[in-house]
Design goal:
By secondary structure, the protein is mostly helical. It is built from 1 helix and no strands.
């Protein structure tokens, strides 16, 4: 038998998903920024 989910518990699940999404997007953004900086600053012969 399933237990009922309270609105607070349901909301915490949404917040957790949103936090993971923000972490993933910011990590990808940081990787891209580092790659761009490396490309701009690396000496090109």
């Amino acid at each position: 038998m399933q237990t009922e989910i309270t609105p607070t518990e349901a909301r915490s699940g949404v917040v957790t998903g949103r936090v993971f999404l923000v972490l993933a997007v910011s990590s990808i953004g940081a990787i891209i920024a580092m790659a761009l900086a490396w490309y701009m600053l690396a000496p090109h012969d």
